[in-house]
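This entry is listed as follows:

___
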Amino acid sequence: MKPTLVKTIIGLVLGASFALGLAGCNTIAGIGKDVERAGEVVQDAAKKR
């Protein structure tokens, strides 16, 4: 495959993933809650060690 085709495919996959992620959150507040929850999970895992 040509390098430009690979870059295009990677860009499309990343763009689609980003769009689906935002659609799942619906709002900026939803994104904030998702990030906050992910942080809490990491903190809980760190405390267990």
Summary: The chain has a mean pLDDT of 82. The CA atoms of residues 22 and 31 lie 8 Å apart. Helices lie at 3-25, 28-48.
